[in-house]
Amino acid sequence: MPTITHGFDWPDRFVVGTVGLPGDRTFFLQATDRGRTISVSLEKQQSAALAEGVDELLATLKSRDGNPFHVPDHTPDELVDDGPLELPLDDEFRVGILTLGWDPTTSQVVIEAAPAPEVDPEEFEAANAAGEDSVELEFEPEEVLLVRIPVGAARAFADRTRAIVAAGRGQ
């Protein structure tokens, strides 16, 4: 079955948000564009790692001679988003794999989220019993969230995500 791609190119909104009280929060990655919203759940650590990765990518781009991509040092005021997640909150899938990239042809940060691959316990045990160090998994996810955002929106995303992660219990 082909992968269902929930694609957002320059979405109206792309944020991490939470539901619940500190210590019992569920984290969501949410993209909205033209009235269409997709939400996927993920771990707090995944959220933090994604924000860190975006920061590192932006720092690398900024360090290039002349900063050709006009990477801002701080979130531009017009891109600050402190709003709540869009409702209703329907979780498409739980994120198991996150990838971060850069598309130089469009000058966009590319973020891809997919569910974790399912591992057949019998296949894993058989490979283990055979003394194989690892099991090769062929993985084509049923669904994937693919978001492409400009550098200013990426800065806003990383700043908001760090604030959301830090808002929990005494990080």
TrEMBL record:
<dbReference type="InterPro" id="IPR021441">
    <property type="entry name" value="DUF3090"/>
</dbReference>
<protein>
    <recommendedName>
        <fullName>DUF3090 domain-containing protein</fullName>
    </recommendedName>
</protein>
<dbReference type="Pfam" id="PF11290">
    <property type="entry name" value="DUF3090"/>
</dbReference>
